[in-house]
Design brief:
Layout lengths: L1 H76 L14 H6 L10 H11 L5 H62 L1
Keywords: Coiled coil
Protein name: Coiled-coil domain containing 12
GO cellular component, one term: U2-type spliceosomal complex
């Protein structure tokens, strides 16, 4: 029986070894394939990045060119117009361009509005209202506070009594032990 079992075991080992070699070979091939795929992907990524850079640069150049064109058009189309405010021209064409003297805007209305807005409103009504509410609260809470005060006094008194009883018991036990010690020594 041992021999059959051993033979079986040996067969299984052989099969495993054979398969193991094949698996290793397959793994190596797969690894190579993966590496190739990764290299291809990396190359594609680099190409994509380069294309994106080129596109960005083209957009920037277009924008620059457009801005330059707009600036040139503005310079050609617009020339500064003379505004003669403080100067009395003698030429008739220049007299047409003269700007009438500016009238100062009325500031009085704005000042009045600001002064009215700055006036303090009476706060006394609000303060009186809040004081009344505080008094009402104090009155309502006073009854509850009295009850609580009585309870605390009772609790304090009970604690003091318990302590005194504990001390009396300790004194009694101390006196009793002292009597026993004294009677033993006789």
């Amino acid at each position: 029986k041992k021999k059959k079992w051993e033979r079986k075991k040996m067969r299984e080992k052989r099969e495993r070894n054979g398969r193991g070699k094949r698996k290793k070979e397959m793994r190596g091939e797969r690894r190579k394939e993966r590496e190739k795929k990764e290299e291809i992907r990396e190359k594609e990524k680099r190409k994509k990045k380069e294309r994106e850079k080129e596109m960005r640069e083209e957009k920037r150049e277009k924008k620059r060119n457009e801005r330059e064109k707009e600036k040139k058009e503005k310079k050609k189309g617009e020339r500064k117009k003379l505004r003669l405010r403080n100067y009395e021209p003698e030429d008739e064409e220049l007299k047409k361009r003269k700007v009438p003297q500016a009238k100062p805007a009325s500031v009085e209305d704005k000042v009045k509005e600001q002064l009215e807005a700055a006036k303090p409103e009476p706060i006394i009504d609000e303060v009186v209202g809040t004081l009344g509410a505080v008094r009402d609260l104090k009155r309502d809470v006073a009854k509850k506070l009295e009850k609580l005060e009585k309870r605390t006094q009772r609790a304090i008194a009970e604690l003091i009594r318990e302590r005194l009883k504990g001390q009396e018991e300790e004194l009694a036990s101390a006196v009793g032990s002292a009597k026993q010690d004294g009677s033993d020594s006789d």
